Amino acid sequence: MVHHYDIAIIGLGCAGSHIVHELINQNVEKKIAVIDPWSDERPEKAWSFWEKGAGKWDHLVEQTWSKTIVLKKGHELKLDLEPYVYKTLDSKKFTAFAKARLEQSPHITFINGSVETVSKQTSNKQISLENGETLTADLILDSRVPKDFYEDKKSIKIFQHFKGIVIKTTGDHFDPDVCTMMDYTLMDEGTCSFTYILPYSKRSALVEFTYFSHKVVTESTYDHFLKKYIKEHLKIEEYQITDVEQGIVPMTTYDFKQHNHPDHFRIGTAGGWVKPSTGYSFKMSEKKARQLVENIRDDRKLDHGLFSKKSQLYDATLLDVLDKNNGNGDEVFYKLYSSNKMKYFFRFLDEETTFLQDLRIMFPMTSMAFLKPFFAHLPKIFGRNQG
């Protein structure tokens, strides 16, 4: 027997989990399937974000910070994040919370499995699983990145890739009230690369070496820079590694929206929900999931209110600069942080600023390196359909 659903969600990652929460919160009474190759052994990652004060995920949050520092050679910025708070949570706990909620819902069925193919039927879509099972749905929300993205040669593709280790020390080495957003004092020459630190206590922290670059490096390269930074910059000789995380996040001008259809809609990374200029996705996915579910509930076009062409233009401009001048990323990001108060900068990254506020933030960046790509991408983006 082939089961039919109103909505099928492929993938219970960041975006899929946010959508599940919104479907339940907004009382969408449709027959829904969530398909995911669930395993309790799935890798654990630190998902970090900023928001004003208390938030609805605080019961899952591992640590918060009200101050941060940004460094490059010879310079250090100490920044107060107020009224924002920087937070981090465990990805496994967040997705497990979504799974627990959906299993309590009378409208949602969880299917543990992997999707092999999606095919068009006369009046709906058929989903075939790797175990041979099939189901149909009127609408598919799909988190799988389309293969065309990897084959595309026209868009800018920069990857945020990283390896992080949680270390435990015998002495006090960290300030648990201050995180390090970007430390460019140690870089892999010719690349935009930096160290990111989330202190959990005076003796424990996530230390991560991160790239915004065109190519992923070998694991031994991450290890080299992590060891060098811990020894020479943190002055720590002895430590224990208690956890490891790695990841690759695309930062791209690729138009994922071209793959959207009224009955098959891409979500998460596959839908362009990652902020292209920063690689942050948690709060962006939360915001877009809320809008998408409102659109489903109110029978609007699925992409209504999801994307801002203005923000796409700013993201494309910054990506173009990083694409052509990758080794100068430290100068670009340090100037952005040093020229703006964090409360305005975070609003800008959250795509919540007015055009006048945008101009104030972007004005310090108005060199030829920025103006040329800005005007090059302007007609491409504003001449493109949103859907």
Automatic annotation (TrEMBL):
Lineage, uppermost ranks: Bacteria, Pseudomonadati, Bacteroidota, Flavobacteriia, Flavobacteriales
InterPro entries with a match to the protein in the record: FAD/NAD-bd_sf
Protein name (Swiss-Prot/TrEMBL): Lycopene cyclase
A Pfam family recorded for this sequence: Lycopene_cycl
SUPFAM superfamilies in the record: FAD/NAD(P)-binding domain (SSF51905)
